[in-house]
Amino acid sequence: MSEVTQTADTSCILVCAGNASRMGGIKKILMPLGESNVVGYSMLAFEQTPDITEIIVVTKPEYFDAIRAEAEKLGITKLKHLTEGGETRQKSVMQGLRLVAKESQYVAIHDGARPLVKPAHIAETIKDARVFGGATLGVPVKDTIKIVDDGLIIDTPHRPSLWITQTPQVFRKRLYFEAVDFAEEHGLDFTDDCQLVEAIGGKVFMTRGDYTNIKITTPEDQAIAEVLLK
What are the structural domains of the chain? Predict the structure, then answer.
């Protein structure tokens, strides 16, 4: 892909506004992890990525103080804004998008509940987005996938073409704004940011990451993350 650049022109939007329904209502982004908590490690990864110029956290207002305190404890200097999320993931991202610095050329959208993402992989995704306009971290599917209808297998997709999509998902800011405008105009709401760009014909490159970039979704995931962190 393109040559490595140290230009800090990318805004990070950390999405942490979910209801944690699969965690039994536990505040998963504030769950202890290693020497910090889930959102602390997520912020730290982007703090340590030279391309990132600012971090915007989209979350519930009752978490604002705890997140600010954790950022201060970790010496995070790039945290610029905290803002309340919307009713859906897409609307939450849009809340963060409104606060992105005018100077930023790219936006990196990341699940706050993916605390183990590596700065090197973030940088690689940004590098690929500079070439294609959009890029997302992902890994090849390991298992054979079946399409099932009413309990019966109806198809088996070609495994080598299947990838698990992770985050961050990085886009040229102008392209992402175009995609958001298109979605609003047509009443579309996606759970994946790549789908927004795909809907207007944008190209999104799949940047290979690794399998440790897990999302904390269930209580078991916290235990796995602790092991991976060590």
Answer: 10-229 (3.90.550.10)
